[in-house]
């Protein structure tokens, strides 16, 4: 796919055509080349491919203001099962709906997307404030206040919670909680909002940094050592480890005793583990569940990603770590969404079920289809029946044509 990776940014109408083989980082780089006041609300990892990222949703730091990456798709080019190249007009609104969050590979071969770029101010503000559990006895109060307000704040403000558990050089287990934020505005206004809405954070002016949008992209991508902008063009991840990830959504707040139980459970692991919690709300609440296949809108408060990581090549620990994260996922059951327990398509999780030969029925595939798409899974299967009734485009968790057996 890397051979179809051109990007054409148009600052006259604030759009871009981006081919499916391009990466998120390449898209950001080419937008920044053309404009200092345009951006795009996609994800944080620059080496992720655009075709899959956009077709599966695209959570990012500006989603509370501008929605998901997939909410900002305005046209597409796709090769259908007959080998024809279709744009939005030719494919029809049903198929166009499906490939904006329903996983494009179930319906054809995505060649390119046309996206709507968004306005960003010349100065944005970031902060990152960390706490070690052993050093702050009131941490549960800070986390509870964050949880109470983060999804209800000004739509320009994104504050995520990043939990990391690892061992120090003496073998002691350390749990660190970091609050990372992007604000589409200057630091004085950010401080005013935090002081009013999240005072327990005790944010200080010297902890805030103003920078351009593309500099915030580099920051969240982990490029904090003065790397050139061209680092966003790298296709190989700078992180040399393997991992297993799972996901959840919160539809109600976790009580304080719940956070304490979670931290204790995390500390008892023997691996490097992460728990990343992104606030939704804002303009995400203004988009209906059926507007696109991604259904987690009003009523969904936070998205959670769990990861366990190990050094590449260390096969001796893989099964132990996989067992741990699957056990932790079960442990989280009382705190997360139910009926169905939700999952995010772009954090693809084959533990939820698979159809390796494409031979399971629609009803059997609802085991994972409903978790990713809720009631939109049925509509996706109807689109599939119309455009690919023989299920030519299939994978372990692809959308099947709706059938009655």
UniProtKB/TrEMBL annotation:
GO molecular function: FAD binding; oxidoreductase activity
Lineage, uppermost ranks: Eukaryota, Viridiplantae, Streptophyta, Embryophyta, Tracheophyta
Protein name: FAD-binding PCMH-type domain-containing protein
Occurrences of domain FAD-binding PCMH-type (ranges): 1-120
Keywords, in A-Z order: FAD, Flavoprotein, Glycoprotein, Signal
InterPro entries: BBE, FAD-bd_PCMH, FAD-bd_PCMH-like_sf, FAD-bd_PCMH_sub2, Oxid_FAD_bind_N
Organism: Rhynchospora pubera
Cited Pfam families: BBE, FAD_binding_4
Family: Belongs to the oxygen-dependent FAD-linked oxidoreductase family.
